[in-house]
Amino acid sequence: MFEDEFCKRLTQLRMEKGVSARDMSLSLGQSEAYINRVENKKMLPSLTVFFYICEYFNITPAQFFADDNPPSAELIEALKKLQSLDDKKREHILAVIKDL
Q1: Mapping DSSP to helix (H, G, I), strand (E, B) and coil, where does residue 24 land?
Q2: What top-level class would CATH report for the domain 1-67?
Q3: For the chain, what are the domain ranges?
Q4: pTM above the 0.70 mark?
Q5: Which of 33, 72, 73, 77 qualifies as a FRET site for 58, CA 20 to 30 Å off?
Q6: For residue 41, is it left (φ>0), alpha (ψ between -120 and 50) or beta?
Q7: Per-residue pLDDT tens for 13-57?
């Protein structure tokens, strides 16, 4: 069961990103058929490759396994920028968002 969910989630994320299994495999430094084999439940990635997969999608491992829709890459980037602001600037941005 875990394997099914993992493979479905990987396929979903890859399709949302609009990349082929081949291109993703090569981007991860793997053989051309690597992601295809994972998505077809012929193998599971190592923990190291799983972290590379999360990095490839710009998500955390927790977001990979989240039941609901994960935040978009844009939202993650916005949150990182918001966290890097000082308290005054962050409060100002949050006030603007609340007014929208």
Answers
A1: helix
A2: mainly alpha
A3: 1-67, 70-100
A4: no
A5: 33
A6: left
A7: 999 999 999 999 999 999 999 999 999 999 999 999 999 999 999
